[in-house]
Amino acid sequence: MKRRIILEQMSFFANHGCFEAERITGNTFTVDLAVDFDFSRAESTDNLADTLDYSRLYALVKQEMQRPANLLESVAGRIVARIREEFPEITGGVIKLKKSAPAMGGQLGASGVEIEW
After folding, report:
1. Any long-range contacts for 40-46 (C-beta under 8 Å, 24+ apart)?
2. Is 62 within 8 Å of 12 (Cβ atoms)?
């Protein structure tokens, strides 16, 4: 049985982008994260020590979102690398990183990337 911990619609204001204007004015970014983790023990113990502390995952994502980058691909890759390094008990997952209203010369709600590992 696969079990996942999910953090959805984390919202951050950050200065990612290839264009100088994007890095100066910033934009709103949304991150959805689902990580594979066997929390079956916590199901019966109801004890935080038997699962992942969601706030630690959130803090990791927040730290990486605060580091400016040109590409969303780079930011998402950094987040995955840190999760894999700091949480070896996580066996896989999916991250979606979206930029709100990207400057593409037309009307677009968001653009983004997704990594599944």
Report:
1. 40/1, 40/3
2. yes
Task: Write down how long the chain is.
Answer: 117
For the question of whether the overall pTM of this predicted structure is more than 0.90, the answer is: yes
Strand order in the sheet with 4-14: 4-14, 27-36, 92-100, 110-116
The tens digit of pLDDT for each residue in 47-80 reads 999 999 999 999 999 999 999 999 999 999 999 9
Host H or E run for residue 92: strand 92-100
Distance CA 100, CA 98 (A): 6
With the C-alpha atoms ordered 13, 30, 101, 111, is the resulting torsion angle positive or negative? positive
Q: Tell me the angle at which helices 72-86 and 54-65 cross, rounded to the nearest 10 degrees.
A: 140
What is the three-state SS of 34-70? EEECCCHHHHHHCCHHHCCCHHHHHHHHHHHHCCCCC
